[in-house]
Write a structure and sequence with these properties.
Elements lengths: L3 H14 L2 H10 L6 H7 L4 H13 L3 E6 L2 E6 L2 H15 L22
Antiparallel strand pairs: 1-2
Helix pairs in contact: 3-4
Length: 115
């Protein structure tokens, strides 16, 4: 059984990466350290938005920050983060997983045809 603290931490981590640009940043950082400018070359977002996403990822413990002189470098906080990103992306590519099911109907709508 999972402890309540572990469950809260898991939710915090998943929320930290539950946004397209944040997940994209994690994919970029799987290749190694990068500066915000380098991340901005790949992730289609304004530099201010990238800084905002980097802050969220760091607060969730998914990335770490290192300063070298005037430059700041970001990297994944560990192999477990790379494994998590791979797991999410691979599950989308695997037929028959819950992530590949059709979306649920909107609240208040029937899933039955003809209604």
């Amino acid at each position: 059984m999972i402890e309540p603290g572990e469950l809260r931490r898991a939710v915090e981590v998943l929320r930290g990466m539950a946004y397209e640009h944040r997940l994209h940043i994690l994919v970029v950082l799987k290749a190694g350290e990068a500066t915000p400018a380098r991340i901005g070359e790949v992730v289609p977002a304004h530099p201010t938005a990238i800084a905002h996403h980097l802050r969220h990822l760091a607060n969730a413990g998914l990335i770490r920050r290192r300063r070298q002189g005037r430059h700041v470098f970001y990297a994944l906080s560990g192999d477990a983060v790379a494994d998590l990103v791979d797991g999410v992306l691979n599950s989308l590519r695997t037929a028959g997983t819950p992530l590949t099911r059709a979306p649920s109907p909107a609240p208040g709508r029937s899933a039955a045809p003809g209604r």
